[in-house]
Amino acid sequence: MHPGETQQAEAVAFLSSPSAYGSDGPVEVVTTHSAHVFLTGRLAFKIKRAVRYSYLDFSSLEARKAVLERELALNAPAAPEIYDRVVAVTRDASGGLALDGAGAPVEYVLRMHRFPREAELSRIADAGGLTVDLAGRLGSAVAAYHADAERRGADGAVLIREIIDELREAFDGMEPVLGRGRVAAFLDRAEQVFAQAAPRLTERSAAGYVRRCHGDLHLRNLVMINGRPVPFDALEFDERLGTCDVFYDFGFLLMDLLHRGAAAQANAALNSYLQAAGDYGGLAALPLFMALRAAIRAMVTVQGMAGSGSDEAAGDARNYLDLAADCLAAAPPRLVAVGGLSGTGKTTVAARVAPLLRPAPGAVHLRSDVERKALFGAAPLDRLPTEGYGTDVTAKVYARLLDLAEQALRAGHSVIVDATFLEAGYRKQVQALAARLGVPFDGIWLHADPAVLEQRIAARTGDASDADADVLHAQLKRSADPAGWTRIACGGEAGQVAGLVQKTLFPA
């Protein structure tokens, strides 16, 4: 027990008793390195432990009150269903303790509403319930969270420099677990990538992308509330640790998904985030950000072993460091265009192939249907009026697709553009973009019997495409197979078609 906790013991004993809450129900006490949490009924009460570590100091009552108030301020806007208020444990005239009483405060408590543990995204993922669709909603939720985050003036390059230096110092004594070769190779590569990224990180700081972020954004700190993913338990005790580039914050979640083997979900989360935030420039530093997040997990895992020598923990730490190295592996970007008539399954196939392209977590997937809606300020599932499909609008859609593709490619990220590409001019434009940027290009042309396409279009629900049978018939009259593009029959099951595309993109 830390010295300050002796005085705190009375409050801990009081809050551990059902009588503190006017109840006879059980109280479950959960203790972490810095807090005690008391679970009773539908409520949770958290106090900060009276501890002092190298990185935090909660030894005084004033400090504990301040950090609880900061925790409330950081989390309540995003999760008002969880975070309620800070109340005091007080001492009454008779010397007894009361929760939110009228006497002098002896401790401060954050009052919260509980949620089912099975609603945590980590639990959902462990149970196999983290679908690609849900992962996409995660990306949108994080983008909304970052949009509301307070901008900070710190230099993003300086912040990342400090993280690399901290890792170098910490790893110095971890070679017996992680492997000297692994550590040296990772640090050398991290320095190379950082040197390339540093000027852009500073530019992003000036552009407002360094903000007071969540700081600990992984699946255990996301929960489903009323059908939506909600971030909670933001890092509250250190403002500098919580201040970072928004993509560094998001990179923790993407790394967590990759570590769990959920590559398709990571790709879906990335693309939803990009669609919502429009921050394609952040892609340039994403491999470094994910790598550092994975390396930090390797470091923390080794530190948590505390001399136990657990083979499982050591293996997990090495897996994290291997993931960090993989994120930094050289992966030149490429441009893929998937075209074909409405109903050929372009979007489905592109979404399945996108996670396979490097760098992790896969290609940026640009959809003409979604970008067309965005031009009108419409949601993806909103239907557009007829004027939304005029030739002038279509030209703007393709221009937008190529602009976003160029941003992503210049940031070093692969791109899949998903559109009909019926006009030869648009096919030439996308190929010319690849040639101008010096990246490999692959054109994929999906085709199927018109009757199959009609059936698919008729069966569509919840799709961004507004195409109907009349649109398909009009397309059939002006469709021509593009020269130089790989024709792939798409009449079969989506997974089979995606497999054929994969073989085209990654020949043995």
TrEMBL record:
Q: Which residues cross the membrane?
A: none
- Keywords in UniProt for this one? Plasmid
SUPFAM superfamilies assigned? P-loop containing nucleoside triphosphate hydrolases, Protein kinase-like (PK-like)
This protein's source sits in the domain of life called Bacteria
Q: Which Pfam families match?
A: AAA_33
Q: Which PANTHER family match?
A: GLUCONOKINASE, SLR0207 PROTEIN
Q: State the name under which the record lists this protein.
A: AAA family ATPase
Q: Which organism is it from?
A: Leisingera caerulea
